[in-house]
């Protein structure tokens, strides 16, 4: 007798599932069991898959993966459905997974099993190996998903998506306790408003969930008759949902019943010991997840309260100016940190804009931030100048460290000193004049009316709280109509693995490409460019990217830009800061980003480097660089001026072939379209001009008469 005849006699078919080719090979009996048309042969995977109940198909994936890991057979019960979704029969599959490289192949049998009797569970099996494996796989997946849920809403979504092995509920509800009342925390599988009769029920009510909370014992109702017999009062409320079986289980954490969980089924469920074991395990995991989510929700509410109490609301409106701000806390912990911004009306009619960052991302950093913000607001409201405000704030923060005591520092980092960076702007709205004091903070950025984006160099001192006697120099500039200034904390620059340079390059492109947006839209765009939607409650991969808090403040001067308004930049280079010469070269290149002649840009950078170096080498004074691009009727002109407080004027020399200096004025004579040296009351300035088109004839002041210079001095700058 052939093997095929024996298998057909016992209603057993053979199948081979080949993922590599995407086909399923069935013999005649297997094709009959699955309701496939025709005789034996190969069928597409999609056609065979459509014959299985979706719930059973989801479960078999976990069973096969477990069998591959253990090197055993995969056993499962599968309901076969017709094209309309009606269950035709139940078959048992026993298959051997075979790995062909990275492709999976299943070889096994299909056998019809007896239909369940009314009142029993369709998935009940005399052979429990497949049930136990699918149960273990389900519980592992459920535990992982519930452990990853971060809020009550996420826990409820996970609970609603759980597909239990063989008896998945179609209706879920989670009940909580508020005093002596039963409340609904969330539900799934019901229409809006269906929860109204159950949303505020006394705990002594004749309702299964209330009894479960009172007694701490589960209640299983396999039939409507059993429900009506045990709870006649609440049965009229439940019968309209058309369910056949119900399970109510207590949610217990640390011995306390915090609520109840209802699982309702449209098909009869017998609630066998195995099924009750699964439901009990899920209820325990759900209770733990809800307890964690409750703590997380409380911490989130605490952090939101801290933010609302500490972060100001911008206002009142600044006449002639628009202001926008955003604060995004870090993704971890309580989502609070040390970044802040503030807008302070001053008694002089001016407005102070402040942005800063206290070291750390914890509650102590947030507390210090609140204290420091209040202190800055007090000093500014007294009318102090920007440098005095930061000096006083630095002494205030340093005094907080001294008050803690040296012994406290040794107890741990919770009491260790903290410093803070800060950028303080005093703005005069009618004129657009801004005075800047900086304490170790990133410099401000200005987008001019023609779309050019420049970092505005601002002299600064140490971060607040390090040295109580630090001075903070003041930098002055004018914000022209149509210009926008951005100040931010380093989180906006460095989030996403960037450093200050690459982060600034990323933001510069955003500022240039969105010049037509309103200030509020631009603030959202800047935050979105760093880590996605500007919502600190966002969860998932975007939240994980937040390495630091983010604060950003934008200010724009209203009004129509002046036609062909000049484009300016200025910065100081101190004797102790020769490295700022490189920053000056970069600043000039940014100012000339759209200059057509690249050779002229290189020439301008070379001359600026020579002029600044001469001041630092041949004098004991600081240098001030001012560069301006102006538009004439047809041409653009670059004028660069370097001033210092030394009275000795430079003069031309004729260096030898091997001389290492003395060529400064010769370079300017060769490269500049016009240049000159102007004495001042205190000191001098040397300047040059470049024209974007052909250079005009040099005027009398373009080339000083060497005979008018002072006597040659080999130590004088050249």
UniProtKB/TrEMBL annotation:
Protein name: SpoIIE family protein phosphatase
All copies of domain PPM-type phosphatase, residue ranges: 318-557
Ranges annotated as biased composition (Acidic residues): 700-718
Domain of life the protein comes from: Bacteria
Pfam families assigned to the protein according to its UniProt record, in alphabetical order: GAF_2 (PF13185), HATPase_c_2 (PF13581), SpoIIE (PF07228)
Keyword list, A-Z: Hydrolase
Limits of the GAF domain: 137-300
Native organism: Streptomyces maoxianensis
InterPro entries: Bact_Sigma-Reg (IPR052016), GAF (IPR003018), GAF-like_dom_sf (IPR029016), HATPase_C_sf (IPR036890), HATPase_dom (IPR003594), PPM-type-like_dom_sf (IPR036457), PPM-type_phosphatase-like_dom (IPR001932)
